[in-house]
Amino acid sequence: xxxxxxxxxxxxxxxxxxxxxxxxxxxxxxxxxxxxxxxxxxxxxxxxxxxxxxxxxxxxxxxxxxxxxxxxxxxxxxxxxxxxxxxxxxxxxxxxxxxxxxxxxxxxxxxxxxxxxxxxxxxxxxxxxxxxxxxxxxxxxxxxxxxxxxxxxxxxxxxxxxxxxxxxxxxxxxxxxxxxxxxxxxxxxxxxxxxxxxxxxxxxxxxxxxxxxxxxxxxxxxxxxxxxxxxxxxxxxxxxxxxxxxxxxxxxxxxxxxxxxxxxxxxxxxxxxxxxxxxxxxxxxxxxxxxxxxxxxxxxxxxxxxxxxxxxxxxxxxxxxxxxxxxxxxxxxxxxxxxxxxxxxxxxxxxxxxxxxxxxxxxxxxxxxxxxxxxxxxxxxxxxxxxxxxxxxxxxxxxxxxxxxxxxxxxxxxxxxxxxxxxxxxxxxxxxxxxxxxxxxxxxxxxxxxxxxxxxxxxxxxxxxxxxxxxxxxxxxxxxxxxxxxxxxxxxxxxxxxxxxxxxxxx
Length: 507
What we know:
Strand content: 25-35%
Largest sheet: 8 strands, mixed
Helix content: 25-40%
Oligomer: single chain
């Protein structure tokens, strides 16, 4: 009976959404904006910018502005298409570095169109050209080319590239990580679109609800991320972005995702997982955000509005970065002073929350009472002492290789050496019942055991006094939800080949 009711709800909801979004809801809440957009999608009546159209667009800009733009290919998609990374202005170490990315999910077209519009206007519009002079800028406009060509969220192999930031099993993500880490941005923003109509929302309102926000801000509350990053986002970037959005009457909120469990709908706020971009780059001691624009499933409905929102946010972030250059540099420098402890397990703050949504039947904004799990306010449950080094036996070269891709410097022992270390001993282990990206996740609980071991010359060393060392914590500690063990990069029997070294001795 419950299944029949769910199906009935879904059918009613889908019908309502399809007829309402393109008409009343868009007209009332998300009217199109008057805007001249020069990207290839607007040279045709339907569809979005294709890969070859994007490359022609960028090549034309290169001809017009040969000194102001560089286009480098950073890798290939699974179908063999070159992934472009666009550099604007003169690149110099003294400049604040900003990196933007669009199209990591192939069915989120406003992110790519917004990046192309930004590139065009930064080169051609006198009112914003100054940004090129004072900021070193890199933009990846279409990260998931194969997915974009067929308007699919996923890469060719069916995997979600924004769940691949630590396991690194896709060539696109590996290339993107290497390129961005080489560029070494101070600010990284990943632009996306979100799905405003979700089956979870049928429980609210007369016949269901939809999200009322033009955009949502996603940033990290992970407790291993330097807290100064979150502070900088909340005190500098978000207030300025909010002012710009308010001026154009665009509605916004911190990012909320929903989950349906035990016949109840729960909402999560913020990011904690390094498997996706916002937390992954924040763990690299970089100001990191992911922007969600209302758009998935809407085709070209309110398309100019969605592109303008993307463009407006990017422009706001650039101006904030320029204005707060010295403050940002100082904050990130202080992030390299690492705490004594690392967080292994945390708990999100849970509380009732009143969320405004659009009733799809009555076309009114209504308050909805929900239960909120706040990822921006987490409490520590299990901590460990931060090691001075992680030590990795040399036959685990896949681990060293992936850490290199994540931007970590890896040393090796120059000769055999006897060391007092901590080893992981598995207390319990299991496999997740559900598949994640084609595999069952490893779930373990460990305890630390002190050992004295002779390590061979060539053993890998991961110094923990480097900028991106928090990524080593999140990938090497066995209990971590996005770690190498969790994601089957290594297996439980191999965790005994990774050690913690805590003595203040340079190896």
